[in-house]
Structures are given as structure tokens and as C-alpha cells.
Write a sequence for this structure.
């Protein structure tokens, strides 16, 4: 199916939602400032008997576990996924492929580039970062394995895809563990009750590699050039509702405008 990408005029606002604003929203964003992970409170908004969306509507999030702004927007996407679930709109996660293969020289210039971005994301989003990674003598910033890990879980346990994605982000940005090592994913699988043997087997398979490449290819066919990007598909049309950081309040508003 050829999908037509419609770019909406959007304005991206920094995240500074105070307690008063939060009280006015249907979905609460409740994240631990130390771990950067979100709890999943019950949906407190008004329940509807029938979802106000047709069956051909879905929210699509294009992101990469090793994209710092994808970590910054994580609480907002967590809330958007729960909102979609409450109104019967599926939420699909497509891997972006920020730096598949890596290869950048791990030198002071590249470290300072990353550190600057991490500090900016922390300042604007409040998401926690550890800077211990930059003490490593060697590191390959290859984002393909972490994307493939998410694709693996999407295949094995689809309902755990977003929690797995968020935990990969946490283990990288807060714990500074190396997603290029398959053992990186073992505690995450254990936390989510995903059989690590099954995970490891599929993660290493040619099928997982090909499925990951397809994710990279399809989002580029859609015209996506930066992450995070959020789209709404309605029938055969794709509406880009955010490219870069956006708050849950803005994302929800744009979803409702498209429906």
C-alpha cells in the first residue's frame, strides 16, 4: 500500500508542565526523576462506550533507543500510548536507525558533541543522564543492535514493545551499559518476563536483521529524517504531527485534529 505523507503545520514547544496543567489532563505523566522511567497510572479520564476513531487509524512513533531526544520525549510518548489505548487507537513503534553501524571516531570532539546534546535534553525534559559513558576509552555508537532488540520483542511479545524500548533507553542513558552486547538485554528481558533464550535466538537471526532494515527503509520512504517523529495514519494517509520534541498535551491535540 502506498501511503501519502501529509505534513501538518506544527509548532514544537519545550516541556515544562506544572502541577496545575497536569491536573487538567486526562493522562498523568508520572516519571521517576532518578531513573527516568514512567509509572503507568490508571486512566482517569472519561471512558467512552465506543472509540471516536475508525479502525484504520493508528499512532506511529518513529524513534531510536540511542537517540537522546527520543529519551527526552519518552514520558510524553508513554502517555500518548496510554491515551491511544483508552480510545481504541493502536500505537505502533517503528525503529528509526539513527546511526546503524556506528563507526564515528570515539574522540573528544564526538564525546563533546554527544555530551552537549545530552545536557540540553536533560535541561529541557528533565530526563536523567549519566555521563560515565564518556570515560570509556572505546565505544562504538552503533544504534542497529538496540533497534534490532526492539524489533525482536515486537515479534516475540508485541504488547511489551514500548516498555522494552523504554528500559533499553534507561539502561543506556542512565546506567551507561553497552547495547551492542547481547547480555545488555538479559536483565530487561527478565524484568518483563521475556524468555532471554528465545530473545537471544531471534535477535541473532537473519530474520531479525532483515526486519530491522525494513523499519529503517520504511520510515525513510515516509520522508522521516529526524527522530523522534510521531505520525497518525488514517486510511492510506500519513499525517506527521510531531518532528522533534513535543509535549503529550500537544500530541493529543494533534491526534484529535487528524481523526
Amino acid at each position: 500500500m502506498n501511503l501519502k505523507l501529509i505534513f501538518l503545520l506544527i509548532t514544537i514547544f519545550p516541556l515544562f508542565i506544572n502541577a496545575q496543567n497536569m491536573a487538567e489532563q486526562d493522562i498523568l505523566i508520572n516519571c521517576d526523576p532518578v531513573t527516568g522511567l514512567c509509572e503507568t497510572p490508571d486512566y482517569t479520564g472519561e471512558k467512552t462506550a465506543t472509540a471516536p476513531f475508525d479502525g484504520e487509524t493508528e499512532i506511529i512513533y518513529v524513534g531510536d533507543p540511542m537517540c537522546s531526544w527520543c529519551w527526552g520525549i519518552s514520558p510524553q510518548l508513554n502517555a500518548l500510548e496510554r491515551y491511544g489505548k483508552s480510545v481504541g487507537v493502536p500505537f505502533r513503534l517503528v525503529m528509526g536507525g539513527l546511526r546503524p553501524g556506528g563507526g564515528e571516531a570515539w574522540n573528544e570532539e564526538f564525546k563533546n558533541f554527544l555530551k552537549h546534546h545530552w545536557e540540553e535534553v536533560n535541561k529541557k525534559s528533565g530526563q536523567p543522564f549519566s555521563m560515565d559513558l564518556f570515560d570509556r576509552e572505546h565505544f562504538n555508537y552503533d544504534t542497529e543492535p538496540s533497534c534490532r532488540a526492539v524489533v525482536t520483542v515486537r515479534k516475540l511479545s508485541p504488547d511489551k514493545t514500548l516498555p522494552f524500548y523504554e528500559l533499553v533507553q534507561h539502561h543506556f542513558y542512565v546506567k551507561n551499559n553497552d547495547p551492542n552486547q547481547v547480555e545488555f538485554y538479559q536483565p530487561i528481558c527478565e524484568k518483563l518476563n521475556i524468555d532471554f533464550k528465545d530473545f537471544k535466538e531471534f535477535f541473532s537471526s537473519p530474520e531479525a536483521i532483515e526486519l530491522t532494515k525494513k523499519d529503517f527503509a520504511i520510515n525513510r520512504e515516509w520522508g522521516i529524517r529526524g527522530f523522534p517523529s510521531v505520525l497518525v495514519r488514517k486510511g492510506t494517509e500519513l499525517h506527521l504531527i510531531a518532528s522533534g520534541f513535543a509535549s503529550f498535551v500537544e500530541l493529543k491535540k494533534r491526534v484529535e485534529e487528524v481523526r
